[in-house]
Batch of 2 targets.
Target 1
Amino acid sequence: MLTSPTILDAADPLARFQADFVRSDPDLIYLDGNSLGRLPRATADRVATAITEEWGRGLIRSWSHWIDLAREIGDRIGAGVVSARPGEVLVGDSTTVNLYKLAAAALDARPDRRVIVLDDDNFPTDLYVLQGLAAARNLELRVLHTDIDAGIDVDALRAALDDDVALLCLSHVAYRSGALADMSTITEAAHAVGALVLWDLSHAAGSVPVPLTESGADLAVGCTYKYLNGGPGAPAFLYVRRELQATLRQPIWGWFGQQDQFAMGSTYQPVAGIERFAVGTPPVLGLYAVEEGIRPVVEAGIDAIRAKGVALTSYAVDLSDAWLTPLGFRLASPRDAARRGGHVSLYHPDGWRICQALIARDVVPDYRTPDRLRLGFSPLTTSFEDVWTGLSRLRDLVAAEEHLTFDATPGRVT
Amino acid sequence: MLTSPTILDAADPLARFQADFVRSDPDLIYLDGNSLGRLPRATADRVATAITEEWGRGLIRSWSHWIDLAREIGDRIGAGVVSARPGEVLVGDSTTVNLYKLAAAALDARPDRRVIVLDDDNFPTDLYVLQGLAAARNLELRVLHTDIDAGIDVDALRAALDDDVALLCLSHVAYRSGALADMSTITEAAHAVGALVLWDLSHAAGSVPVPLTESGADLAVGCTYKYLNGGPGAPAFLYVRRELQATLRQPIWGWFGQQDQFAMGSTYQPVAGIERFAVGTPPVLGLYAVEEGIRPVVEAGIDAIRAKGVALTSYAVDLSDAWLTPLGFRLASPRDAARRGGHVSLYHPDGWRICQALIARDVVPDYRTPDRLRLGFSPLTTSFEDVWTGLSRLRDLVAAEEHLTFDATPGRVT
């Protein structure tokens, strides 16, 4: 017996946050908040004020407002989104650039070790960055095979770790399956062999608790345009454990990491704190959008967000079992809610065409190869009604074979 | 006999462009458009539309608008701001990150050479990036001494070039003096020994013609928040000569440089074109601000901008000679207009206090160590009246010794 979404929405303690976000088209069911979060209502005004007042009126004098933004917003992420202490998180650059900086810094800190351990289910840009670093430094990439529906096999991972491993780099939440890695257990296993650990939090931050402090994680990077609602291409963040900061040096030496920056000294001498991982001029407009994007996340609290995320994904799994399995779908995510993050994937051999047909029915999912519909449930903006309506439209279109009229060749993700 | 600014403004063919920019405070004389360009009137609406319509309403579906923006805006810079061919310019990342990518790519392309040539008057972040690359690769940094008021000594530079030089990296316009380097002569000298050349265009782009194509320059990076009016921390651009693109590979392997990106292949295989120098998700809001920032530059035309830049700086030099030299100032820029870009610096032993006093008089200059007031004249937004008024306030405050009441210890640039 499936619960009515009306009942679930009525009991949802986070329901009020939906009003904090723009919903231009009430008929559109948006199940891709894990790819691009919805627009917070406050963002347009905040960015407009920054443009008109701070830039337009204040001009260069507004640098007094801007100079510390990257660290201040980082601290808010550390306090309310992930678990980190003040001075451990910095916003700026892209996730990929941050991953490069921190991975390179970690490898420099373990110069006698020759191995990077990763898994083949990590996000492609992570794979590429590590391939580039391994090629440049002639290191071994030890690639663990991960079941793309089930997530990391911790026993196999342990077996891949030895005292030649400099760096372990994994995603906290897998980008396809949503599988949630056990950050504490895995970090401990890496530390047992003396390796550093770099976590990609892109699909985790704002969706699940991220125990950076508690797990002893060394390094992390994350995206702000997914569950953190920072907007398209919003600046990413990085985390470096306080105790490691002075011992690590990232490879892109830039003036925003320099001591007494505006003395314009001729020799690079990085500051002691988290800003040594900064590079160039911070993207001010993007930073303000991030500030507004994280505000409702911090206000709601990550534990409440996680609870709703579990409820949303569990509801989707129940509906899928009832409605979609008979139509040839298979759950491509962990069935145990404790082992998955805020999204679930559904495998169907005709996934690409179904994705296109679903968009034509005003439901926006994401598509991930091979043949997976990825359904992202952003707890602050997705209602149980959205889940019900989205999956019922999916059921109806496949039952009616509407997808057979669409091109079967996978193209650009829309 | 000093010409009246009224006469000069009346004859200024670019005067109409001042109306395209916000001037909130008519009494403020802004002589720092070379540090942060004024706000174009169109920018706030363009960014607001991107936020509200493309992000808010279109959500993830708007990637069809966003996916090629970095190259499209790059092409506009190549067509109307610097001299480059389609597919040679890309917008994204910070100037410093771009400098790192291109310098590393150049060094990889000359693996048997051990020397990077630079000059000690290059912008600090350039020095730092090259120091970092030299340290990581155990290369020699051959640092040419440049007179900070006069610019690069081409004969001394030639003497520093030999067949062990992999890369020459210089600024087209010096950040303090405004000295304009001879891009063609210097590029030719570097090519004669088989070195690659990387130009920092940050203080040149939008102010002087940048003959990348004509000079045969290999690589360049530039800033968009100065004369290109892109706003605080706006994404930078990079240039890679078409013939070199396929042979160069930058070190930060990311998914926005990957062939068939959304196939999410497991092995990095960069695209053939300029986007192989892309890394992560492009900063969409920042890109739109850049698009609006360059629009009036392209419309005015760089030759007209250059002509007015020469007129503005020459006028400032004339006023300074008449009014400021008797008060202890000295021109810290080339006196020959053909040898300087869009800004001039004035040395005074009490420069820092004078800078503070000038700001208190509603004139915003920039301060650069040691003891230099840097006066940036952005041809699209600065009138001859601005130059006259700004320098007369400077004259009056020094004559009245108002600056003696300010703190003499240089601090943060305001």
Target 2
Amino acid sequence: MLSATPRTALGRSKERGRRDRQALYDVLDAGLICHLGVVASGAPMVVPTGYGRIGDTLYVHGSTGARSLRAAAGAEVCVTVTHLDGIVLARSVFHHSVNYRSAMVYGTARVVDDPDEHVAALRALSEQLAPGQWDAVRPPTRKELAATTVLALSLAEASVKVRQGPPSDDEEDYALPVWAGVLPVETAFGAPEPDPALPPGTPVPEHIAGRKMALYQ
Amino acid sequence: MLSATPRTALGRSKERGRRDRQALYDVLDAGLICHLGVVASGAPMVVPTGYGRIGDTLYVHGSTGARSLRAAAGAEVCVTVTHLDGIVLARSVFHHSVNYRSAMVYGTARVVDDPDEHVAALRALSEQLAPGQWDAVRPPTRKELAATTVLALSLAEASVKVRQGPPSDDEEDYALPVWAGVLPVETAFGAPEPDPALPPGTPVPEHIAGRKMALYQ
């Protein structure tokens, strides 16, 4: 179960909250990028970036010199993963909405110093973005590992919100002669585009060609 | 032109920066949701939400009681819009990346008090998410308008980053016998799903049925 803290207890739209830990894993595991929020020089900064999960720890990484990573190290952060599933078209402007699944994780980002955890986290990050590639391509060198900062964030404090289904209109608006419903937003992988530098005829591995968007819709 | 400030000047990957204002409009206008970053009780908070643009002002809105909106009002915020366009599959783990278009806007969020600007902003928000719906459905009542806080953010301080194309591998890795290229990520609207409460045979308006994802690849 996800425990409610002042900032994960849902204020608005409580019916959209999910309190089971599996719902959190489902939202995180289905994603490709997150939005990392940090406070830099006193102001918020929101950066799109990759992430990975091992058990109840979320990992983000970046170049050792990146400003967002430096601001996040040892500091309070918020990581948000959002899937937009549809536009909810209501009978009034006011009740327009979106169908979505989102997770927000709050906590202090710990710099990963342990070499084994560092590599395991990078592997998790790689698998999240491109499953199967870690074993298929050249592994990181010691120099490349040293150039990459990895931050760990506990999933102890998190909230999950999900909205699904048709619009919720005001009772008297259901009689209006307007169409209402959901316009789905669908995300999928397209056909792999070979690097022009690749020798002609290089086969596309099945873990790339056969990849499906995980758990979307 | 977008002027460089300490936080919009790109530190890493300078070649991905775009300094023309049209690039900023293109990224913003193609999006459906943004991630709004605020500082609440001293810690960052990143919330997915809708937005709209009129000229060089970005608008976000929310319930008057929402914690994120209260934290943002009159305070420093960061709004980020990200389009994920593809997974960049390199010949080494280290050079894996993503193709994307993203915009980050920084500034102080101004609460919109002027009634005309308030309605104009809500219309822009509505058009961004669901073009054509404002004129097709019941307009907001005075009570609904009062329940909605709108915040304005100048586009004066913003940065745009774009990555496109195949992987950039280390020279010596191009000889490795592995496939490399881009796995495109494509986002599209699905077939409209009618509200079960709708009278059977209600036609789907063309502005919904014929809608295409704006500027997505």
